[in-house]
User: Fold this.
Amino acid sequence: MTARFTVPADHPCLPGHFPGRPVVPGVLLLDAVLRAAAGLGDAPVRIRRAKFAAPVAPGAEVEIRFESRAGGRTGFTCRCGGTTVLLGEL
Assistant:
């Protein structure tokens, strides 16, 4: 499954994160992963691990890809403009 999302440049969390070079907070990226993962099944979803690999600029489109893994786990990779920005496991 693949999902896409964008954090608009006028999102209320962006002022001050960081002045002069705004960056989408990691908590918004993780929230988008959880929201997209809610469509994967009926069971509650929790993040087992996550690694932030690169910053995401406001207004950039992020693609989330999910893949099934052993033990009933699901891996996820978030990419922005061809760059992996977040990866982890549910």
Notes: The two ends are 14 Å apart (CA to CA).
